[in-house]
Amino acid sequence: MMEKKILIIEDSEEIRDFIKTCLETEYSILEAANGLTGWEIAVNELPDLIVTDVMMPEMDGKQFCYNLKNDERTSHIPVIMLTAKVEVEDQIEGLEQGADVYLTKPFNIYLLKTYINNLIKSKEVLRHKYSQKLFFEPLDIEIGTVDKKFMERLMRLVEDNLEKSEFGVLDLSKELGMSKSVLYKKFDALVKIPIAEFLKSMRLKRAAVILANDKLNVSEVAWKVGFNDPKYFGREFKKMFGKSPSEYITDTRS
After folding, report:
1. Which residues pair with residue 32 across a beta bridge?
2. What is the pTM of this model?
3. Residue (of 47, 101, 38, 97) closest to 70 by Cα position
4. I need a labelling partner for 17 at 20 to 30 A (CA). Which of 28, 29, 65, 201 fits?
5. Could you tell me whether strands 49-53 and 79-83 are parallel, antiparallel, or unpaired per DSSP bridges?
6. Cα 37–12–102 angle (5° rounding)?
7. Distance between CA atoms of 10 and 193, rounded to whole angstroms?
8. What's the Cα-to-Cα distance from 50 to each of 109, 155, 203, rounded to whole Å?
9. Alpha helices in 24-60 (DSSP H)
10. Angle of helix 35-45 relative to helix 61-69, nearest 10 degrees?
11. Could you tell me if 43 and 71 are in contact, meaning their C-beta atoms sit under 8 angstroms apart?
12. Considering only CA atoms, which of 181, 183, 179, 233 is closest in space to residue 204?
């Protein structure tokens, strides 16, 4: 399993080094000394979790968290916010900006590690759940508003371009306004299915609907859903549905 990546954003080098030393045996660590640098790293690297201070130069933790949770590229990333402010109002404000956990300084490192472990495990459980639900209720997955809008937009783009055999991940990333690498990471963080496999499965599911309802032959259906090679289409269709397109036609049209 690939090592999980954690970004630590903390202007105190001493605290940053302390957290890094406590976590680096279990996670791959990224570091930033202020919110602005942290934001740049978050967008480019898409870490699995972020630990951020509140009071920092360039961009404070609350603004950072707001930006993170309202950007399609990064909205899925869990955030633990560290602060010396102990007032309930400050904690509420931090949580309202999207922080998943608000931990006051001085903090217990074992408590921090427990929060990190639980948040990452929770994300993994949700990835499995979304992977299963996506094929049956694609626009009814229980995720945050920004992530749901992202998935809805992605699904519509795929649906609108299924007939174009050349339409792939690069085209999808351009339409979504993010780099190919960021799209790969974003999709992988939400759904435990490689995005190229997801695109293929969408084409095959559309093919199944057409085969069952339209009077088209197998080759015509293959071309209609973006497969230039009917034989390859037939093999992939059987892998997914357990029967060849011809058998599927016989079973569903009879």
Report:
1. 9
2. 0.76
3. 97
4. 65
5. parallel
6. 80
7. 34
8. 15, 28, 36
9. 35-45
10. 20
11. yes
12. 233
Q: Give dist(CA 94, CA 246) in Å, integer.
A: 58
The per-residue pLDDT string of the chain (254 residues; one tens digit each, 9 = 90 and over) reads: 568 999 999 999 999 999 999 999 999 999 999 999 999 999 999 999 999 998 888 898 889 999 999 998 998 999 999 887 666 676 666 666 678 888 888 889 999 999 999 999 888 877 766 665 555 454 444 555 788 888 888 888 988 998 898 999 999 999 999 999 999 988 888 887 888 888 898 899 889 989 888 888 899 999 999 999 999 999 999 998 999 999 888 888 66
**Residue 173 half-sphere exposure toward CB, CA atoms < 13 A:** 16
Structure tokens at 181: 């690498």
**CA–CA distances in Å: residue 218 to residues 7, 101, 134, 208, 239:** 50, 53, 26, 10, 16
